[in-house]
Amino acid sequence: PAAAATPQGDALIGVAAVLTACVTSGLAGVTLEQLLKRQGAISLWLRNMQLALVGLMLSLGMAYWHDRAAIERHGFLQGYSALVWAVIWLQEFEPDLQFLLGTLLVLSATALYSAGTPQRKKDS
Question: Does the keyword Transmembrane helix feature in the UniProt annotation (predicted)?
Answer without folding.
Answer: yes
